[in-house]
Amino acid sequence: MTATISAPRQTSQADRRDWSVIGFMAALHLLAAIALLPVFWSWQAAASLFVLYWVTACLGVTLGYHRVLSHRALRLPQWLERIFATCGALSCQHGPIDWVGLHRHHHKFSDTDTDHHNSHRGFWWSHMGWMFRSIPAQAAVPRLTGDLARDPYYRWLNRWFLLLQLPLGALLFWIGSATGAGGWALVLWGIPLRLVLVYHCTWLVNSATHRWGYVLHDSGDGSRNNPWVAALTFGEGWHNTHHAYPHSARHGWGWREPDLTWLHIQLLKRLGLAHQVRLPAPLLAQAASRGVG
Ligand SMILES: [Zn+2]
Ligand SMILES: [Zn+2]
Fold first, then answer.
1. What distances in angstroms separate CA 148 from CA 75, 82, 192, one per listed residue?
2. Predicted pLDDT of residue 292
3. Residue 94: what are its φ and ψ, rounded to 5°?
């Protein structure tokens, strides 16, 4: 499927398996399976998972890492931008600089051999296989993230993001013990099970929405609009529209394409916290014809 198979593949320094990532993911999936044992079930555990799913996947990855930091689709006060970036770091999907750099790289080279999760290499590769090997695109990150690297807090977060799970784990353990749900039950549901759930939902945006769904715009790549991925990811599944208009704060355009993250942005705007909210020309024209500013 790709130019890389035209010659016999040799395992070079640049194509090595990354055993630290493989081991980390294997351990996390095992702990997530343990969390599902009946002995760890409680409503408190389920509530911790869903609250943290919203905080890390929606506020953190989708709103913070993606729409604010990667695409600058809206502006927030620095304190709030940093809070959302911290929520993103709690998803353990790299620190903000590496996440944004790799994401900007994906937009630049989407579905080509240079794209690190090129969907033409198959579902497994674009979903999670790409991160089990060394990532050549990593070398491009400093070039693509000058705006973020200027911020000392983002540099710190980029280096130490994994450590944030420690105070979170301590808090969950305390809440679990205090409410009678069990400290370890809340830790297992709030960290490994939640992380695995958020991982796969995020990865579906790289795999499923570059494979299944409908095309509304000529974005020059394999991106699709996919309703069930949009439902799981607070609106990120409207991915063909996003690739066509990457700097738009709104990904789902009509009532048929609900975009929960866009609702959050509208709320922030009403509260006077979101500024310079960017929308594509067709949506602006639509609003102007309805007499809406
Ligand atoms: Zn994409
Ligand atoms: Zn994007």
1. 14, 11, 28
2. 56
3. 75, 165
Q: Which ligand is nearest to the CA of 115?
A: 1
Least distant ligand from the CA of 102: 2
Going from the Cα of 30 to the center of ligand 1, the distance in angstroms, rounded, reads 29
Backbone angles phi, psi at 238, to 5 degrees: -85, 60
C-alpha 263 to ligand 2 mean position (Å): 18
> Residue 13 — pLDDT band, cuts 50, 70, 90?
low
Express each pLDDT in 187-227 by its tens digit: 999 999 999 999 999 999 999 999 999 999 999 999 999 99
- Rounded to the nearest whole angstrom, what is the distance from the C-alpha of residue 243 to the centroid of ligand 1? 7
Question: Among all chains, which residue has been given the structure tokens 């903000």?
Answer: 96
Ligand closest to the CA atom of residue 203:
1
Between the CA of 30 and the centroid of ligand 2 the distance, in Å, is 30
Instruction: Compute, in angstroms, the gap from residue 194 CA to the centroid of ligand 2.
Output: 23
